[in-house]
UniProtKB/TrEMBL annotation:
<comment type="similarity">
    <text>Belongs to the purine/pyrimidine phosphoribosyltransferase family. Xpt subfamily.</text>
</comment>
<comment type="subunit">
    <text>Homodimer.</text>
</comment>
<keyword id="KW-0963">Cytoplasm</keyword>
<keyword id="KW-0808">Transferase</keyword>
<comment type="function">
    <text>Converts the preformed base xanthine, a product of nucleic acid breakdown, to xanthosine 5'-monophosphate (XMP), so it can be reused for RNA or DNA synthesis.</text>
</comment>
<dbReference type="GO" id="GO:0006166">
    <property type="term" value="P:purine ribonucleoside salvage"/>
</dbReference>
<dbReference type="GO" id="GO:0005737">
    <property type="term" value="C:cytoplasm"/>
</dbReference>
<dbReference type="GO" id="GO:0000310">
    <property type="term" value="F:xanthine phosphoribosyltransferase activity"/>
</dbReference>
<keyword id="KW-0660">Purine salvage</keyword>
<dbReference type="GO" id="GO:0046110">
    <property type="term" value="P:xanthine metabolic process"/>
</dbReference>
<dbReference type="InterPro" id="IPR000836">
    <property type="entry name" value="PRTase_dom"/>
</dbReference>
<keyword id="KW-0328">Glycosyltransferase</keyword>
<dbReference type="GO" id="GO:0032265">
    <property type="term" value="P:XMP salvage"/>
</dbReference>
<feature type="binding site">
    <location>
        <position position="27"/>
    </location>
    <ligand>
        <name>xanthine</name>
    </ligand>
</feature>
<comment type="pathway">
    <text>Purine metabolism; XMP biosynthesis via salvage pathway; XMP from xanthine: step 1/1.</text>
</comment>
<dbReference type="InterPro" id="IPR010079">
    <property type="entry name" value="Xanthine_PRibTrfase"/>
</dbReference>
<dbReference type="InterPro" id="IPR050118">
    <property type="entry name" value="Pur/Pyrimidine_PRTase"/>
</dbReference>
């Protein structure tokens, strides 16, 4: 998606350790008009596929998923929580994922009442690096008996291989911007086309 690539190029910052900071428009301050264009692009890509729900992980995926849902007939959004709380009650699907940006493992929790057998679920997230977070969501869908209809990603760090492996495993991954390489010393970002 040209507009997203341009925003990454002009407003993104490459940090040491393969970190791409895009908090000015994607995952701290949110550009809702851009999110709307992203949702439209995913709706076009996944046209004809059944989508009953959208599943994401808190926190950065929530805003993107909510705006995208409008392009899928306002389907419900379910977000996996990263910690137990007193508000989480009843039976739950729980798995553990490793966060590249946080450099630690954390639980991923979805109440069983919000994810049902036979549902077709679109996974949406802001970043895809090594694919661990998405593997956690796929695991939860598998335990629920739900089908992963596809995976919509805003920014994929293609050089980290997570997206390529998911595609090799048969998942329909639509990343709107795939970073092929980036250099913290020069700030250069190269996109895959």
């Amino acid at each position: 998606m040209q507009e997203l690539e341009e925003r990454i190029r002009t407003e993104g910052t490459v940090k040491p350790g393969n970190v791409l900071k895009v908090d000015a428009f994607l995952n701290h301050q949110c550009d809702v008009a851009l999110f709307d264009q992203m949702g439209k692009a995913w709706a076009e890509h996944f046209a004809g596929k059944r989508v009953d729900k959208i599943l994401t992980i808190e926190a950065s995926g929530i805003g993107i998923a909510c705006v995208a849902a409008r392009h899928f007939g306002n389907v419900p959004i379910v977000f996996a929580k990263k910690a137990q709380s007193i508000n989480l009650d009843g039976d739950q699907y729980v798995t553990t994922v490793y966060s590249f940006t946080k450099q630690r493992e954390f639980p991923v929790i979805v109440s069983k009442k919000f994810l049902n057998e036979g549902e077709h679920v679109l996974l949406i997230d802001d970043f895809l690096a090594n694919g661990k977070a998405l593997r956690g969501l796929i695991d939860i869908c598998d335990h629920a008996g739900a089908t992963v209809a596809g995976i919509g990603i805003a920014v994929e760090k293609g050089f980290q291989g997570g997206g390529d492996q998911l595609r090799a495993d048969g998942f329909d991954v639509d990343s709107l911007a795939i970073v092929e390489s980036m250099d913290a010393s020069t700030g250069e970002i190269v996109f895959r086309h």
